Amino acid sequence: MNSKGWGTLYGLCLALALGWGLTGLVEGGCDRNPRGCGVPDGYGRYFAACMVALFSLAPLGWTVIRTDDWRPSLGISAGALVASGITLSAGTGRDLVVLAAIEVALAVGVPLILRVLGRSGTQSNG
Description:
The chain is mainly alpha-helical. The protein has helices at 3-28, 44-67, 73-90, 94-125; strands at residues 31-33, 36-38.
């Protein structure tokens, strides 16, 4: 598998982990305490998945931006679409529907934005 294939797989896993984690956090709600809002007991694994995915986003973003190749972002799109299905399977409350809509918007928007930015970067250089 070439580096583009690995990048696509990496984006897919990242989007799935982030979507699953956010779905669990939205479903769990907020545990009110004197310092503010916290993660309820039993939902720490969702928080951990979100943090790992967010910290893993920087290397993928750097790779896509540095090489001007938008195709690895298709993995993010596929993962975000599957994550929206996971979100909607958890319920159809307003908060879950909003999260699913954001995931679908990212699935469509990320490759389009990166493709336009890649084209504008190559036209100004050549």
